[in-house]
């Protein structure tokens, strides 16, 4: 009987770089953390296991960012690097605006975004490591001192004085043994696709058609939407629902295959049941869009009550107005909850159900906040911060804050906090939130 384990021989690894800051994960969250830190004078390594930066915005083809205005569309609640990227894309006619929309403030070309991120990383003097997989942390004398990575050149180590985990699943925190959890009712993922010939669908009720045919094609009845791709005649189509745990290797593998199967099923339904449809599959994502997996326990867990009631925090580093958006794993459709107390349950094969999650009141909050404490992992490592969708939030809070424009702000905050911690010779938890907020404001962020 074969052994269930093998012993890998010990070996010495070359140190391929020595930095002030190492950011793991090259989504917009990770890129923005790296840029903010570099602009404050840090030497920065940016490690990404795929071949390009941008994460969900590029690799997963999700080409919308949500509103920079509050729920009443009266006050700007964020700016910073998200707006910088929009302006850069605008110069290439690669973005469309929708000012008074809570669903899609900007629609952009993901391919143009991918190249633009290359340029901003290069301009900032960041040392990029693409096609480089994080393997393990390296701890010396109780302090996180390096990360072990592997790429085409082999296995090596990257040393740094400070680290930001922007891996999406909190891989660095998890492999350090820090406390965390996979949400009991985590939201399912979605594989998007690029399609051609969308004009042939015309005014057909395609969402309802897909929902009615879902059972015959073993399709969960999720939520289907689409967006144009600026500068092309293609359209991004999002309608799959995959309930695998993507923090697990087997689960992620099953999710990728199932997502592609469902993309083909939607394509077949449109061809067979929409008269005159000539929709063709033009592109697949490099990675499934993941809404939720692991959360790391931090100094504060943001609650749904704090989000929905618009609680203010003295250490707030991000503001958002995107609704609570729950993609259910145990029933069709989605539930939206708004800061003004409204609630809508929507599924495409039935009329929406309107209600309220709380009674009407004289004054409603119009935005919510994320405190810096949600980015500071519990544990002994003072030179580590979290940024992105795995920060500490309960399931209802996560359903609102998880969207890219909110997570982009957590990246910016982590990058600035890393610079302040190193400048002051203090742990992440000891960074003065007043100084953090002031420095973020100086760098272009909206601080409320």
Automatic annotation (TrEMBL):
What's the superkingdom here? Bacteria
Q: Which UniProt keywords apply?
A: 4Fe-4S, Iron, Iron-sulfur, Metal-binding, Oxidoreductase
| Single GO MF annotation | 4 iron, 4 sulfur cluster binding
What is the protein's name according to its record?
FAD-dependent oxidoreductase
